[in-house]
């Protein structure tokens, strides 16, 4: 098992790491991004996730499951073009959940699971 830390402020406060590689999978924790709106936060979160995936030896093409969590489902559609571009020809199974996030300033949280190459 391998644990990947990103240095995020909540990792030591809450007691988790950005990603765990185990059992042939890479589990990336729910990730929020920085920015003033949902699109910039989505872009930022994807950058953090991409870095964690890279450290695990995989990329967005290897993602098999993604969960999007937003406090307002109406804000999800502006992110669609970026998400379609990110996953391209390798779209994962996906779920969008409307829920409260850890701080009201966050507009989207993204969690992914990727498969390690066989």
Commentary on this structure:
The protein is α+β, with helices and mostly antiparallel strands and 118 residues long. Helix content is 28%, strand content 31%. It contains 3 helices and 6 strands. Strands 1-2-3-6-4-5 form a 6-stranded mixed β-sheet, covered by helices on one side. The radius of gyration is 14 Å and the shape is globular. It starts with a strand and ends with a strand.
Q: Topology of this protein?
A:
Elements (H helix, E strand, L loop, with lengths): L1 E3 L5 H6 L3 E4 L2 E8 L5 H19 L6 E8 L9 H8 L5 E6 L10 E7 L3
Parallel strand pairs: 4-5
Antiparallel strand pairs: 1-2, 2-3, 3-6, 4-6
Keywords:
alpha+beta, 6-stranded mixed beta sheet, 28% helix, 31% strand
Concise overview:
This protein has 118 residues and is α+β, with helices and mostly antiparallel strands.
Succession of helices and strands: EHEEHEHEE
Q: How many E-type strands?
A: 6
Strand content: 25-35%
| Unreliable stretches | none
